[in-house]
Design goal:
The chain has helices at residues 3-29, 44-57, 71-82, 85-101, 111-125, 133-147, 150-156. By secondary structure, it is an all-alpha fold. The chain folds into two domains: 1-33; 44-156, no CATH class. Helix 3 packs across helix 6 (133-147) and helix 5 crosses helix 6 (133-147). The N and C termini lie far apart (67 Å).
Amino acid sequence: MNRRNLLKGMGAIALYSNFSGVLAEFVSSCKSNPKTLRPGFFSDDEFQILEQVADIMLPKTITPGALDTQVPYFLDLVVKNCLFPDDQKLIKKGLQQLNGEAGGKFSSLSKNEKQSLVNKIDAAAYKNDADNAWFMIVKKLSLIGYFTSQEGMTKALNYVKVPGNYEACIPYKQGEKAMAKTFLMYW
């Protein structure tokens, strides 16, 4: 037996011996079990605060809200994978600060108290208050996550499927939804 045939035979044995495991993994991955989403960056307490803040910023009305479009999971993913460590620390510190300003636990406040506190932080963040700068990042990312989701794009905006016919001027009717764009301007 020559070396080439030996290597071919060993490769075939390795392939066939592993094939059942690969096939089993493939078949099990095709089952329609929905995956449970879990935060990968924020602690459970921080993520709970993030969910409540996102729900205050983008509540469910006649259109889906932030929780319906999984905005908190989008925030978790983007903060973990796309932001610099300094910004990550700033957001975590801001969420802990929110607990402190709530007198211990943000989730223990009433809905109106939560809304009032978030509005106060929002106003301070846009007055260049360094302690609340984290909120601007969270708010911008929340809006990006919401309006790039399928529900946000098709139900909250006037979505026009592209490619389609080019129309240079589309008349605006009073009370009509804003047009959805297919590109993003982040900052």
